Amino acid sequence: MASKITIVGAGSVGATLAFTLSQESYVSKIVLIDVIKDKAEGEATDIAQGTAFRDPISIYSGEYSDAAGSDIVIITSGVARKPGQTRLDLAQTNVNIIKSIAPELGKYAPDALYIIVANPVDIMTYTFMKYSGIPENRIMGSGTQLDTARLRYGLSNHYQIAQKNIHAYVFGEHGDSSFIPWSVCNISGMRLDDYEKFVQASGQGIPPLDKEAMHQYVKKSGSEIIKKKGATFYGVTVAVVNLIGMLLADYETITTVSTMMHGEYGIEDVCLSCLAVIGPNGVKRTVPVELTDDEVAKMHISADSLHGIINGLKKD
Question: pLDDT by residue (tens digit) across 203-213?
Answer without folding.
Answer: 889 999 999 99
